[in-house]
Amino acid sequence: MPDHATGETGQVQAAQLYLAQSKAAQLLLSVLGGRSLDAVLAEADPDLIALGRHLRAVCRDLCFGVLRHHGRLKAVLRPLLQKETQPILGALLEVAAYQLLYTRTAPHAVVDHAVRAAGALAHPAVGGFVNAVLRGLQRRREELELAADGTPEGRFSHPEWWIRRIRRDHPQHWRDILTIAQQHPPFTLRVNSRLQSTEQYLAKLVDAGLPASRIGVHAVLLETACPVEQLPGFAEGWVSVQDASAQLAAELLDAQPGERVLDACAAPGGKTAHLLERTTDLHVVALDHDAHRLARVEQTLARLQLQAELHCADAGRLDDWWDGQPFDRILLDAPCTGSGVTRRHPDIRWLRHSGDPARLADTQRQLAGALWRTLKPGGTLLYVTCSLFAEEGPGFVQSFLANHPDAIHTPPAGAVFSDGWVLPDARHDGFFYASLRRLPVPA
Q: Is the CATH code 1.10.940.10 the one for domain 10-155?
């Protein structure tokens, strides 16, 4: 568990804890109002930097932690709230409740600073209310947590519609999927095989005091996350941060030297880079419709000393970018709900709606249908989503095959796969993969 009030300057940090609580509550209010956590944090970063390195880290941890446990925190606090609470106070109470239930921060410090934060955010008069709620949580913790376990949202901290959908689509694994989503994600690296072997980089990690283990062809799992600046050779392009499930894309696409390859939704560039790292003499065209995100692809390739043909365009609008030359292979990392990566992006579960899987499945089918026209006969389109909803996995494959008689589906093989799924575990995020080959034209 994180410890928010310790360190070389622990007393100063503890005395300023209310600043982190206040800022976290404000950011969470924006997220729960419909904005992504990444966007909210990016916008607030100058203010967070002004808080100082430690408090900035505390504030970010509070945001991630509250969103991971938002459903349970609401359920635990609900019996303690006798009337409707101002939204900002509700967010602050969740921040403090998260600290009391899930961190080692001293309980008296949590309560005292939350009272101070309430006065700064709302009105000094509400301090007594905040104090009473949090003291009540401390006294009745066991009773309140037991009651929270009696509701699906309180037990699993996901919306009820989400829980029902995961249970329907993964009847043997739904509890594990929802439980794993409450944990911190693994910190996984991809070794740049153009510059060194995985074994060589593991040795460098050992020398740097960063214990790690190999878990894939180029994947290395660190025991403890660290800033990328501490990774040996990060600036020189020796290694990148990328989940082990995402690293399977380049291996499954298996592009060969001399081939023309499309990465249709390329940002932030990890899969594009991996394609180029593992295969020499490859012509990669990388698209993204967002210029800012495409710039991240360019930065990633520059750090790794790689080159690709970049276009800012909507992959589905062929007239805007396609020159008519067909591709040997296409990687379609399609826009999706992100339901397989909520461990990394806990805001997703609270921002999505029950109609989103079907809506996004329509987008996926339209994109794949358009890109199919750019694929050579005999070529392969690898369909990828970081989703665990059936509409965006097997449902897509079934629909695509029904509408494209010249397509053959080959499920990926390997111990990590289950009917195309990579189910989340201690080493992997949740993904779905489908390899679709276009039949050659009959002679």
A: yes
